[in-house]
Amino acid sequence: MSIAVIDQGAELYWFASSSLLQDEITLKHLNSIQSGESYILKELPKIVILNGDDSSIHAEKFIAKIRNHVFARNTLFVVFTADTSPEYKKALIIAGAGQILYRGKGHNPSPKFFRNLIKWFLNVKNPDPQTIEYKPVPFEVDGEFSTFGRIGWISASQCFIEVNLDLLPGQTIELKNTLMDELGIKDCKLTVLEKNKVGRYYQYANGYLCKIESKNTTKDNNNILAWITANQNLSKYKPIKVLYYEQNSENRENIRSMIKLDQRYCARGFANLETFQEELEYQLPHLILIDRQLIEMSKTKFEPLKKFIQSHFCYCVTYDNDSVTKLEDYKKNYDFAMHVPDKIESELLESMIKKLEVKMFAGKEDVSKNRVYFNKYSPYSRISLHTPCKVTELAISGIGVQLPYTMASYCAFEITAQGFTHLSLNRMQYFRSFINKKLATGPIYHQCIFMGQTLKDNELIKNATDKIKEVGFDKWKDETMP
Q1: With the CA atoms of 454, 455, 460 and 465 taken in that order, what torsion angle do they form, in degrees rounded to the nearest 10?
Q2: Which site among 225, 304, 415, 417 is 20 to 30 Å from 343 CA-CA?
């Protein structure tokens, strides 16, 4: 497990190093964006810490670039900056920054909070509730919750979305999307039909087939169909999901160069088999290309593939760039997979893709003609989901909020609440979900962490929590009303 620190100077590295002194975590200091990128793509560190004020880095562009790399897309980023502008914060969040920590003259973030944040980021899916210090006071205000996701495809009456919410079939949620705005569709809502029946294309916790409903559903569905018919040229249909498993960074780069954007497949890459079964169930791949040397190191991790292939439409090809494994042993012991003598060539990959296409669609209607599949760079692929919420608690580190849905840990979201103005904060605030629990009364409670709070914000929140402890929330609220 390693963490990379990218900064021309050594100050940020020494801050991180001293904060994590008690932990067995390897830190690597890179003093240029070029050396940083090279290290990330070679070592695939779990976390990268960036100096957001270094003009040579362009943090938001660098984060977006790395998170679009087939092997490095799971990298988490922490950005240190003195730029407190809302525009820069939003740009970093959209790019994929995990957290933004502010520093100024004579001021750095709390080393304790930074250490706890890193411990959480090393285990975002199953966090220890004790990791983040949380001492809340009552803070009961109504707000509007919104979180972000992607739309994979849209038809006249249905769509496939990926989000970090745990929705159930039959549940409905409000949708906002550029296409709906352009078509003048009012009060657009999605009702969940199926959950996680196909593998994910993006990096969200869940994927849903949804029914599209609106203020005038019949008319709006016809408008969507007309738009689809007129915009088939925008469709980027990539039904085949490919997973690569390669430990050698040079070989990973060779694999990346084989991936062609105009082909009908999307790819994900991994450097080991540590979470192999989880990735199978999450991605539901159609083709797996795996270095046999990784299998040699983790044979028990590889074994679940046999059962997966028996119940899913999936093929596996093993290879060995260095020809050190015994091909005949693999043919004998793993007859559910195909085995090639040495490395994977682009011709073999393209041949496998063509064969998969034929088998996947043989005798089936081509449903893609009635849909538009959005490229991940298309503004139409971006969605936000909205619902009323209730904020119940306030602490220096974050808030407690009740929702009708469960958020995955690390889910990024916004809450707009007039109550935040009583703190002299902007009415819209950014958060990441930390832990959650089902309440006996029905809603789901979430403990959430502020994203990008400045020193001034922290002081305002501390003053408010101290006062609420002293006089109670209702009296404090009356005293702070404009």
Answers
A1: 100
A2: 304
Whether the Cβ atoms of residue 401 and residue 436 lie closer than 8 Å to each other: no
CA atoms of 189 and 200, how far apart (whole Å): 22
Angle (deg, nearest 10), helices 455-471 and 473-480: 120
Name the one residue in this structure whose structure tokens are 């003009």.
Answer: 55
What does the buried/exposed string (b/e) look like for 161-197 if buried means 16 or more CB atoms within 10 Å of the residue's CB?
Answer: bbbbbbbeeebebebebebbeebebeebbbbbeeeee
What pairing do the DSSP bridges indicate for beta strands 406-407 and 165-166?
Answer: antiparallel
pLDDT tens, position by position, for the chain (482 residues)?
Answer: 789 999 999 999 999 999 999 888 999 999 999 999 999 999 999 999 999 999 889 999 999 999 989 999 999 999 999 998 989 999 999 999 999 999 877 678 899 999 999 999 999 988 999 999 999 999 999 999 999 999 999 999 999 999 999 999 999 999 999 999 999 999 999 999 999 999 998 889 999 999 999 999 999 999 999 999 999 999 988 889 999 999 999 888 888 888 776 778 888 999 999 999 999 999 999 999 999 999 999 999 999 999 999 999 999 999 999 889 999 999 999 999 999 998 888 888 888 888 888 888 777 777 778 899 998 889 999 999 999 999 999 999 999 999 999 999 999 999 999 999 999 999 999 999 999 999 888 899 999 999 999 889 999 999 999 999 999 999 998 888 76
| Residue 69 amino acid letter | H
Query: Residue 177: beta bridge partners?
Result: 383
Q: Are strands 2-6 and 47-51 parallel, antiparallel or unpaired?
A: parallel
| Strand, coil or helix: 467 | helix
Question: How many CB atoms neighbour CB 473 within 10 A?
Answer: 18
- Count CB atoms within 10 A of the CB of residue 466: 12
Residues belonging to the chain: 482
- Opening angle at CA 99, ends 130 and 75, nearest 5: 95
Report the alpha-carbon distance of residue 136 to residue 392 in Å, rounded: 9
d(CA 427, CA 368): 42
**For the residues of 400-427, what is the DSSP string, one character each?**
EEEESSEEPTT-EEEEE-GGGGGGTS-S
Q: d(Cα 175, Cα 146) in Å, to the nearest integer?
A: 9
The pTM is what?
A: 0.92
What are phi and psi for residue 310, nearest 5 degrees?
Answer: -65, -25
| Segment (H or E) for 111 | helix 111-121
